[in-house]
């Protein structure tokens, strides 16, 4: 039995939401449509026969088929990155009991960005593997710092205090990033495309580096989901149900940081995917995290991939980075949620 789990006789019985099969089927269909759209649309759309040849006939040599083959790695990475950000958003909302928690809102993405720019400026790094470890370190340190600041004073880590701590930390770290970049034009040239957030530079080596972090983070998220349901009742109620809240928060937070840190390292600080996917899933399925976490991963994959396609279509013949598209959609959502939820606890 896991050290954070609710004891076996107190485990809530798994109740499948009535609309779950329909929602799962809808999300999977949307995921497939977005993946196909990512392969077909871009600066040069391809025909259906080119799509089939590019996927299933390696012996066929044509411009359209070659374009499809080159887009496969980008599509796979956008799916993986979106899944990581979606699951990370669900975990952070559960751990903080904050309905508007998200890696970008809590400053975790900015902490990862600061460590990456420091690595570029002072350590001369330039590979995906180096980016990942620095981004994870920055994300972890920032998460601990924000939670520590938000826990000070009466009431502990309330949702409002965590959001304010995250916003203040993000602003301070962004200033540090700017201070490092301004006198170093060579660093800015390397960093500016990464900073916006894009999946356009994905390759198979980067995906191979990212997959272990995605697998471990998703596995921990699934294992902690039942106990996180108890945590939503409050620390005292969760402790009464046999949950070791400190250990649970540690494991869930580590999983969230692994997922968002690794995604940020390779794609840049893409915001609002976790926020949007988690709230869409919660709206359809209710509050059970045993469903919210996996479905948020699927929804996040579809949302990020669709945003990448929209960016390519809007910016044709070039492209509009996916981080710009998600921010354009996510910022109004954040304002709406803040007005409706009034930053209340989950």
Automatic annotation (TrEMBL):
InterPro entries: ABC_BtuC-like (IPR037294), ABC_transptr_permease_BtuC (IPR000522). It is found in: Cell membrane. The keyword Cell membrane applies. Signal peptide: none annotated. Pfam families: FecCD. It comes from the Bacteria. GO terms for molecular function: transmembrane transporter activity. The chain crosses the membrane at residues 20-41, 76-94, 106-125, 132-150, 162-183, 204-228, 248-277, 289-310, 322-339. Keywords: Cell membrane, Membrane, Transmembrane, Transmembrane helix, Transport. One of its GO terms (biological process) is siderophore-iron import into cell. CDD domains: TM_ABC_iron-siderophores_like. One of its GO terms (cellular component) is plasma membrane. Its main location: membrane. It is a multi-pass membrane protein. Belongs to the binding-protein-dependent transport system permease family. FecCD subfamily. This is Iron ABC transporter permease. It comes from Paenibacillus antri.
């Amino acid at each position: 039995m896991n050290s954070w789990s609710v004891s076996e006789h107190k485990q809530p019985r798994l109740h499948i939401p009535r609309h779950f099969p329909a929602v799962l089927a809808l999300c999977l269909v949307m995921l497939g449509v977005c993946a196909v759209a990512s392969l077909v649309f871009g600066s040069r759309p391809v025909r259906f026969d080119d799509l089939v040849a590019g996927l299933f006939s390696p012996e066929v040599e044509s411009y359209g088929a070659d374009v499809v083959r080159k887009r496969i790695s980008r599509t796979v990475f956008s799916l993986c990155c979106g899944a990581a950000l979606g699951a990370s958003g669900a975990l952070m909302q559960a751990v903080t009991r904050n309905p508007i928690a998200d890696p970008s809102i809590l400053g975790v993405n900015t902490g990862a960005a600061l460590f990456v720019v420091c690595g570029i400026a002072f350590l001369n790094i330039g590979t995906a593997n180096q980016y990942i470890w620095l981004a994870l370190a920055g994300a972890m340190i920032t998460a601990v710092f924000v939670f520590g600041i938000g826990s000070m004073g009466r009431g502990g880590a309330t949702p409002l205090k965590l959001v304010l701590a995250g916003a203040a930390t993000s602003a301070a770290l962004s200033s540090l990033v700017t201070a490092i970049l301004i006198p170093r034009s060579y660093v800015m040239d390397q960093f500016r495309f990464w900073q916006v957030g894009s999946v356009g530079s994905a390759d198979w080596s980067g995906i191979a580096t990212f997959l272990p972090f995605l697998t471990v983070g998703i596995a921990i998220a699934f294992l902690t989901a039942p106990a996180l349901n108890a945590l939503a009742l409050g620390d005292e109620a969760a402790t009464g149900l046999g949950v070791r809240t400190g250990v649970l928060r540690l494991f869930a937070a580590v999983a969230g940081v692994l997922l968002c840190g690794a995604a940020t390292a390779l794609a840049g600080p893409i915001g609002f995917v976790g926020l949007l996917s988690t709230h869409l899933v919660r709206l359809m399925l209710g509050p059970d995290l045993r469903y919210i976490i996996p479905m948020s991963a699927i929804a996040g994959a579809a949302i990020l991939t669709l945003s990448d396609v929209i960016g390519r279509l809007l910016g044709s013949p070039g492209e509009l980075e996916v981080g710009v598209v998600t921010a354009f959609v996510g910022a109004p959502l954040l304002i709406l949620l803040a007005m409706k939820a009034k930053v209340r606890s989950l």
